């Protein structure tokens, strides 16, 4: 960290369980306020009730259940307005939505994806999970399978939204409703499954916040 | 197509946000592009009119390709003098006349009422329930949660100081601690039926125990296979069929069911239990329990009664292990929770040491966390007896499979009003009455539990429930 000039702040908001639609609205709202410089960079950390979301490049055939069947199981369905294919969110999964104005030296879409991966890989390492990148398959992988998915949006003014989903608790059944990220035959796993022990969100969140600050050179302020 | 990063050579036009003839402001988004995993809005490099679109939606083009022209002098509807539409390009690479694209755009901030209003009224289920119970409109409550969201503290404070109500104030942006924030919705959700989903009787299994648990060290190969291995026979696939591999939980469940049934000779006995006394107690203590914030379900009563009776019948709280009988020192009651799809059996350890209210709290807590997939591994292990509740789905009775490593499982049928004949204990006169009743079935391992033991066990459970102690 540089000593001379303090790092710019990132406000970290830990929101608990937030319905997907509210999460979308909140992001839209914050993107606009970030663009007009009313607020500093934001990192939203939350969980969603069970929901399947379709990215812009989603293939409907990667949805294994019909919308009716999803509804019967209490799983919502949304078009998310982010990059990527199909994914699932649900309890036990830490979802992170960074609302950042990317500074000029970070204005690289793939570079941003790699930076998000780096945050999660470093946080996982501290938890004792060896995560790595798979060239061509955005996200964070372990020997047991994919542990985190990433899909982002960059709005006018290089303002980011959407972000990452890290599976912390047991791999939810909901993944059975989809072909995650359109990658068949690649299992989804979670921190708890890799470690064979219970890991609380409260253990994971501080690590993600710390490494997020380090990778993006921001000073996290939990508000 | 603007340069959006070193490694990006091409982009797909996902959507045009402006059409030909539309006027656009500098920095106003005019199209969306997508590359794998990233969607990006491309702002106009200059103010003017979008006069030509060269690349259609769904088309993929290389970086540097002109995708559209913006006329910087035209009026809406009129045509060219062209201006290439660039994007948020790195410094020094901005479009010809678009100038610098960096910096804040002119986009007006959204009006903040919408989402905030939604978040305020969409507080946690707990807060909503409290508000509903007290007839409070959440919009009246000053929220101190994120963006004015009403927290539990807020609503409780509001109720406590209702005389001062009417205060208004700008919502502060304070947040509960992470653990509160993440746990509260789970702990606070209302749970009128702690174990509403009794599993279908044939489905009681926990993936917690590995296969082969019963395989004795000195057993021959045959017995090792018999006790430890399951092979499901295969069947030919017909034309209209669908083949789907079993996932891990289903595979373990299938294995467990086969082994449990293969090893333990199952017998089932039935008894009918009258719930009049239990209903009386529930009515009597409803207010007190509500004050304590606990919902005491039928399941809690049944678990309480079983945990006491299990102490009187050690052979029911035991298992056959090799050539030994293994009598368990603790009474750990597993309660099947339907996850629909799926099933999990959280365990109440030392259930016999808990009061009725203590048990009820554990039942609610475990069922809630089971549904939220937040159980610790030890909370689904170590059951010495199990209870399953097929009755909640309306079935009369079930013949559940005994989980491996235990001697018995109780299935509770639906509790419904029936016409019964009662005998006056003093006069011996018969009367016809309407009573709430339920058929209980006990599935037991006949190697260790004799039929008479099972009958005595069921009778004691019935006796305890029908004359439930007031001080439980």
Provide the CATH architecture of chain A. 2-Layer Sandwich
CATH architectural group of the largest domain in chain B: 2-Layer Sandwich
Rg of chain A, Å, rounded: 17 Å
Helical amount of chain B = 25-40%
CATH topology of the largest domain in chain B: Chloramphenicol Acetyltransferase
**Count of individual domains of chain A:** 1
Number of separate strands of chain B: 18
What is the CATH top level name of the largest domain in chain B? Alpha Beta
Give the SSE order of chain B as H and E letters.
Answer: EEEEEEEHHHHHHEHHEEEEEEHEEEEH
Mean pLDDT of chain A equals 88
Low-pLDDT residue spans of chain A:
none
Terminal CA distance of chain A reads 22 Å
Shape by Cα distribution of chain B: elongated
Mean pLDDT of chain B: 76
Supply the number of helical segments of chain A.
5
* Oligomer state of the chains in this structure: heterodimer
Structural class of chain B: alpha+beta
Concise account of the structure shown:
By secondary structure, chain A is an alpha/beta fold. In chain A, about 30% of the residues lie in helices and about 30% in strands. In chain A, strand 7 (about 130-135) and strand 8 form a beta hairpin.
Write a concise keyword list for the protein shown above.
heterodimer; A: 223 residues; alpha/beta; BirA Bifunctional Protein, domain 2; 8-stranded mixed β-sheet; 3-stranded mixed β-sheet; 5 helices; 11 strands; B: 472 residues; alpha+beta; OB fold (Dihydrolipoamide Acetyltransferase, E2P); Dihydrolipoamide Transferase; Chloramphenicol Acetyltransferase; 3 domains; 7-stranded mixed β-sheet; 4-stranded antiparallel β-sheet; 18 strands; 27% helix; elongated
């Amino acid at each position: 960290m540089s000593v001379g000039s303090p790092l710019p702040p990132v406000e970290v908001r830990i929101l608990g369980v937030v319905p997907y639609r509210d999460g979308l609205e909140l992001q839209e709202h914050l993107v606009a306020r970030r663009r007009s410089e009313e607020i500093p960079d934001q990192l939203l950390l939350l969980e969603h009730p069970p929901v399947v979301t379709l990215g812009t490049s989603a293939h409907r055939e990667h949805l294994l259940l019909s919308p009716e069947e999803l509804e019967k199981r209490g799983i919502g369905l949304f078009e998310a307005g982010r990059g990527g294919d199909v994914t699932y969110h649900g309890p036990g999964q830490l979802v992170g939505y960074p609302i950042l104005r990317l500074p000029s030296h970070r204005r690289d879409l793939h570079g941003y994806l790699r930076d998000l991966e780096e945050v999660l890989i470093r946080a996982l390492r501290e938890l004792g999970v060896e995560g790595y990148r798979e060239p061509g398959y955005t996200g964070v992988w372990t020997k047991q399978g994919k542990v985190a998915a990433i899909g982002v949006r960059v709005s006018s003014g290089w303002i980011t939204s959407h972000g990452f989903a890290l599976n912390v608790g047991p791999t939810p059944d909901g993944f059975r409703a989809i072909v995650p990220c359109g990658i068949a035959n690649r299992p989804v796993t979670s921190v708890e499954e890799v470690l064979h022990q219970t890991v609380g969100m409260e253990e994971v969140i501080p690590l993600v916040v710390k490494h997020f600050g380090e990778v993006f050179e921001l000073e996290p302020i939990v508000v | 197509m603007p340069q959006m990063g070193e490694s990006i050579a091409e982009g797909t036009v996902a959507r045009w946000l402006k059409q030909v003839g539309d006027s656009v402001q500098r920095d106003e988004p005019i199209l969306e592009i997508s590359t794998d995993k990233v969607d990006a809005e491309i702002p106009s490099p200059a103010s003017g009119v979008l006069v030509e679109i060269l690349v259609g939606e769904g088309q993929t083009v290389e970086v540097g390709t002109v995708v559209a022209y913006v006329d910087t002098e035209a009026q809406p509807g009129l045509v060219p003098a062209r201006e290439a539409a660039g994007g948020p390009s790195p410094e020094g690479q901005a479009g010809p006349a678009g100038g610098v694209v960096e910096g804040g755009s002119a986009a007006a901030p959204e009006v903040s009422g919408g989402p905030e209003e939604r978040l305020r009224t969409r507080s946690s289920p707990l807060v909503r329930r409290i508000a509903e119970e007290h007839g409070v409109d959440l919009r009246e409550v000053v929220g101190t949660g994120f963006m004015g969201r009403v927290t539990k503290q807020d609503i409780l404070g509001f109720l406590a100081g209702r005389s001062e109500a009417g205060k208004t104030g700008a919502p502060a942006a304070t947040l509960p601690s992470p653990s509160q924030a993440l746990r509260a919705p789970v702990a606070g959700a209302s749970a009128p039926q702690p174990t509403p989903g009794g599993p279908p009787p044939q489905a009681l299994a926990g993936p917690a125990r590995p296969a082969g648990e019963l395989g004795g060290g000195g057993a021959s190969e045959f017995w090792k296979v018999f006790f430890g291995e399951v092979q499901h026979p295969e069947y030919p696939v017909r034309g209209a069929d669908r083949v789907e591999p079993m996932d891990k939980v289903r595979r373990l469940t299938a294995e467990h069911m086969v082994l449990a049934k293969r090893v333990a000779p199952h017998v089932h006995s039935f008894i009918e239990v009258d719930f009049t006394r239990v209903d009386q107690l529930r009515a009597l203590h409803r207010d007190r329990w509500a004050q304590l914030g606990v919902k005491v379900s039928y399941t809690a009563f049944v678990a309480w009664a079983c945990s006491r009776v299990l102490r009187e019948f050690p052979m029911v709280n035991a298992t056959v292990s090799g050539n030994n009988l293994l009598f368990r020192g603790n009474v750990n009651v597993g309660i099947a929770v339907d996850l629909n799809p799926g099933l999990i059996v959280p365990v109440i350890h030392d259930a016999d040491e808990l009061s009725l209210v203590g048990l009820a709290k554990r039942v609610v807590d475990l069922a809630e966390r089971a549904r939220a997939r937040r159980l610790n591994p030890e909370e689904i292990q170590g059951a010495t007896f199990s209870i399953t509740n097929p009755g909640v789905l309306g079935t009369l009775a079930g013949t559940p499979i005994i989980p491996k490593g235990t001697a018995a499982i109780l299935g509770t049928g639906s509790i419904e009003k029936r016409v019964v004949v009662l005998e006056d204990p003093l006069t011996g006169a018969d009367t016809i009455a309407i009573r709430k009743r339920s058929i209980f079935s006990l599935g037991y391992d006949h190697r260790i539990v004799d039929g008479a033991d099972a009958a005595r066990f069921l009778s004691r459970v019935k006796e305890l429930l029908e004359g439930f102690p007031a001080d439980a």
